[in-house]
Design brief:
Layout lengths: L5 E3 L12 E4 H21 L4 H17 L5 H10 L16 H16 L14 H25 L5 H18 L5 H29 L5 H4 L8 H22 L7 H14 L4 H18 L2 H16 L6 H11 L11 H24 L10 H4 L15 H9 L1 H24 L3 H20 L9 H39 L1
Helix pairs in contact: 1-3, 1-7, 2-4, 3-4, 3-7, 5-6, 5-17, 6-19, 7-9, 7-10, 7-19, 9-10, 9-11, 9-18, 9-19, 11-18, 14-16, 16-17, 17-18, 17-19
Length: 496
């Protein structure tokens, strides 16, 4: 048997002959840290040379040989890569890039290894039906959208649709291949490591900008290329760090998680996205309410009282950014664009009303995937193609109200599954991750009201990976309870 310092295959899912280490823990953390830092440097320095391209594909080739019968390894790689996938693409031919290469390796390992498991190739989960149904609706919408887009003279929607659905497919790959607590912990740690590194890169990019006179110049797009979308990244994964801190605060070294959470909060702040701030605050509030932690409740209440008594303690950027939504008062940061900021907020209301008109016109099938930007001009006063700035309205107007209902059902299922893990899990690390993810789900629900936040791999990829981990944890908890009850009944029988 392997030592505690290694990641091993559990006997329940593999025969005893295969109970060997996947990877030494020290080597694991060294490699993960190395590749995350390399990606962060490439994003920060904005470089992707041929030498780097070659290095990555050599690494992927090596990964392929080590991943035969070990699909967990490429899943680790996908998890640490997806946040950087928009900047570090790795295109060398049509449909040949890092994302697809890692996905193929994962599928290959899955096919090879499933024969040695006690589980079926595709485990049953509450999300399976809804994912399939949403995919079928998406294909219908894609065909419809492609037809309309051809009339507008647009390009192919297949790649955009693939990036929209790929994160959901990652759920299927992960829930069927990450089957033990130790592997789940490794993936969650990778998610938190990438969140911290992305926060550091974002903060450094903001520092490099320096003092500016307009919001447009101050906002940081980072790994997403868009400040609003980048903010959702911190909304999704920042609360994980807060949850782990709350349930491990009795350990002095665990206070570093609070520092990491504050880094993510600062990263969300420098996006200067009002929707992000509201969503991040919602996620933090949910974690505070569910944990009932005095470490969060008391400082939170004190902060609220201080703000009410003296609003000037708020950062000037935060106060003036929200004030710009409702007034025409100027601050030194926005003297030249105050009218534009106000117009941006009012334009969203016009777009949302137009989206409702589109939904009324075609409520069941919508107008087709990818067509909102074009049809919104026919149903509102907007004179040029514009995004919906609302995930729910976009899904309903492009794919129909039934598709929106399926999408919302998936989010509800993920929330309920994670809530089960939070209430029944005993391990403080997993319990903290569960409550943090609940905060992330709530924050995402708010963020989706202000933009299209689930249609990009770099933002939604890890979200669905964590959803799969929570589903697997639920399955493990249920099995542990069954085994415990059997053991208790056996002991009672022997005693009798």
């Amino acid at each position: 048997m392997a030592s505690q310092g290694t990641l091993t295959y559990p006997n329940r899912f593999r025969p005893g002959a295969l109970d060997y280490p996947i990877i030494n823990n020290r080597l694991f953390y060294t490699l993960v840290s190395f590749f995350i830092l390399i990606q962060a440097l490439v994003v920060y320095l904005d470089i992707e040379s041929r030498l780097f391209l070659a290095f990555c594909y050599i690494s992927i080739t090596i990964l392929f040989f080590f991943s035969i019968n070990k699909p967990e390894i490429p899943i680790f790689a996908i998890t640490l890569y997806v946040p950087f996938s928009k900047i570090i693409v790795g295109d060398i031919a049509a449909a040949v890039n890092y994302t697809n290469a890692l996905l193929i390796i994962t599928l290959f390992g899955w096919f090879i290894s499933h024969e040695s498991r006690d589980e079926p190739f595709l485990v049953r989960t509450p999300l399976n039906f809804f994912l399939l149904l949403f995919a079928l609706m998406g294909v219908i919408s894609l065909v419809q959208g492609s037809y309309h887009l051809a009339q507008f003279g647009g390009g192919s929607l297949i790649i955009l649709f693939w990036r929209w659905y790929l994160p959901m497919f990652l759920y299927v790959a992960v829930v069927n291949n990450i089957t033990d607590r130790e592997s789940i912990k490794k993936v969650l740690i990778i998610v938190m490591m990438t969140a911290v590194v992305v926060a550091l890169v974002t903060i450094k990019q903001h520092m490099d900008v320096g003092n500016v006179s307009t919001w447009a110049k101050a906002r940081i797009g980072g790994i997403a290329g868009n400040p609003n979308t980048l903010g959702t990244f911190f909304v999704n994964y920042g609360p994980l760090l807060l949850g782990v801190f709350v349930y491990n605060a009795h350990k002095l070294k665990s206070w570093i998680f609070m520092f990491y959470f504050l880094l993510c909060a600062r990263g969300a702040h420098v996006t200067y996205s009002r929707g992000t701030w509201l969503a991040f605050g919602t996620g933090t509030l949910i974690v505070t309410i569910l944990t009932r932690s005095r470490k969060l409740v008391i400082p939170g209440l004190l902060l609220i009282v201080m703000i009410l008594l003296n609003p000037s303690i708020l950062p000037e950027s935060l106060e003036s950014r929200f004030r710009a939504t409702f007034t025409h008062e100027q601050s030194y940061l926005e003297q030249s664009i105050e009218e534009k900021v106000e117009k941006s907020a009012s334009d969203r209301i016009i777009i949302w009303r137009g989206a409702l008109n589109m939904i009324k016109r075609n409520p069941f099938l919508g107008f087709g995937y990818g067509t909102f930007n074009y049809f919104i001009m026919d149903y509102s006063e907007i004179e040029r193609p514009r995004d919906a700035h609302n995930t729910y309205l976009r899904i309903a107007s492009e794919m129909g109200l039934p598709a929106l209902l399926v999408f919302l059902s998936m989010l509800v299922i993920v929330f309920i599954t994670t809530l089960f893990v939070f209430r029944n899990e005993k391990d403080p690390f997993f319990k903290g991750c569960a409550v943090g993810y609940l905060g992330g789900i709530a924050g995402l629900a708010v963020a989706c009201m202000f933009g299209s936040r689930m249609n990009s791999l770099e933002i939604a990829g890890q979200f669905w990976i964590i959803a799969a981990l929570m589903q697997r944890l639920k399955m493990i908890i249920i099995q542990e309870k069954i085994d415990e009850n059997k053991k208790r009944r056996g002991a009672q029988t022997e005693a009798a």
